[in-house]
Amino acid sequence: MSELRPDWARGVRRIAVLTGAGISTDSGIPDYRGPDGIWTRDPKLANLFTLDNFLTDQEIRHRFWQRYLDHPAWRAQPNPAHQALADLSGGPAVRVLTQNIDGLHQRAGVPARKVLELHGSMHQTVCCGCGATTPTPEVLDRVRVGENDPSCVDCGGILKLAVILFGQQLDGEVIGKARAVAAASEVFLAVGSSLQVEPAASLCAVAVRGGAKLVVVNAAPTPYDEHAVEVIREPIGEVLPRICRDLLAG
Ligand code: ZN
Fold this sequence. Notes:
Layout: E1 14-19, H1 38-41, H2 51-56, H3 58-69, H4 80-88, E2 93-98, H5 104-108, E3 115-117, E4 120-127, E5 133-135, H6 136-144, E6 159-163, H7 172-184, E7 187-191, H8 200-209, E8 213-217, E9 230-232, H9 236-248
Parallel strand pairs: 1-2, 1-7, 2-3, 7-8, 8-9
Antiparallel strand pairs: 4-5, 4-6
Helix pairs in contact: 4-9, 7-8
This protein binds zinc ion.
Zinc ion (ZN) binds near residues 127, 129, 130, 155 and 157.
């Protein structure tokens, strides 16, 4: 990317930003499919994150909660890329569609109403019986004092992070909103996502069909690079502040 402001960044009023795990690795949260990714290092871990296993196997739930007790996201701080998007969200119409469950966009200052969490949030826990939600730290406090498989205090149902597990349907309402945002966007920034899993891949397709200029910022090639007006391989924490400044310049 040259130092000159690119044409696609001029006069943009509606921006959709799709973010994946790559935007949070600078905050110390490992991605999934990169060289040090969670699935790359231990493919069997996917068992833990499969809905059927979680619902039917108490031991899986025990291991799942143990894993989240000490998750790096609890200590993570937003990095310059999150900050840049927060600054951008104060300007033109911006919506952030994120595959991440870490809540770092909101922590950086993007208003919650402008963030669509496609895979849910680890900060909330939901009861699979009655649907009640609880802040996850309260559930982890119970795990910490010896409850291996904490259950709902209201109905006794199984508690589960409010995130999408393998084999679980995406939230139709959230996805519907995300598609509408993608279709209406003039620039669609895809940041730190391999764009290989749904709904990320089809959101790119919706944006391109709707006439958006697609800009891909990702270390590795993606299936959508050929549809992009620009593909940027530079580190996200360096390049995103520059892109957001260019977009804010109007
Ligand atoms: Zn319940």
